[in-house]
Amino acid sequence: xxxxxxxxxxxxxxxxxxxxxxxxxxxxxxxxxxxxxxxxxxxxxxxxxxxxxxxxxxxxxxxxxxxxxxxxxxxxxxxxxxxxxxxxxxxxxxxxxxxxxxxxxxxxxxxxxxxxxxxxxxxxxxxxxxxxxxxxxxxxxxxxxxxxxxxxxxxxxxxxxxxxxxxxxxxxxxxxxxxxxxxxxxxxxxxxxxxxxxxxxxxxxxxxxxxxxxxxxxxxxxxxxxxxxxxxxxxxxxxxxxxxxxxxxxxxxxxxxxxxxxxxxxxxxxxxxxxxxxxxxxxxxxxxxxxxxxxxxxxxxxxxxxxxxxxxxxxxxxxxxxxxxxxxxxxxxxxx
Length: 336
Known about the structure:
The protein is 36% helix and 12% strand. The chain is of the alpha/beta class.
């Protein structure tokens, strides 16, 4: 069996299949920095407390968030933290990989944090099995019976699993979205996706998205970011309802200024110092990651900044057709 790819998806299933197949050849294009997961089962007592004392569950969540948030300086090039985290990653290799040549093949050649840091407690252990082989020569082509690498060798396999990722910079694909005057979002993003706070785009009124351009994280949970976006979008909707507006459209100058500052910040990050990455477009523009901490994102999205939007009032044409929400409200019985 062959597995093409060795990143986040591959490290999850390779340990599961390694003990069930005769042989596994893992084709690695580049090594990844990997930290131990350190998972353990929660005790019955811990489950009881977290279930019956909600404040403890909330505090525990914030404790996990804080531990992850403290890693952020790593992605802004903090050398002391980078050295410490790299030391943990290298020790992880030494602890579980005995072969010196294999250790060397697993050591990345880019700054830690430059690409997604992987987490696993069993991938390196799986590589130590006799029936598991790591192949670092590039793939030339596939034949009916195997994988031919650029060094001329043919690796005989009867099945191939592709763990090659996905199009991470193709936001909202394959949906076709049009804005004012037939403006196409695909055309607007021809040189790379960009948005205001990762949620809205000038020329596309009342259009909001979650986990959009430049809101991905390298150090913390995307759930926190989505929660911030949810609050922001709900406040925008509340503005539309309360002011009886037809739409809100982001000002182009606000979007341009925001993205200029964003890319300036990203240029100082460890992601900019790394070559090809799924965080970037083919042209090298970082379209995936947020440039700051989650605290900073919360602060910038804590209120709906109405002053950066152009408002269109509803005219009689709009008023003639009630919205479903208005119809539902009209159907509700009066309070006793």
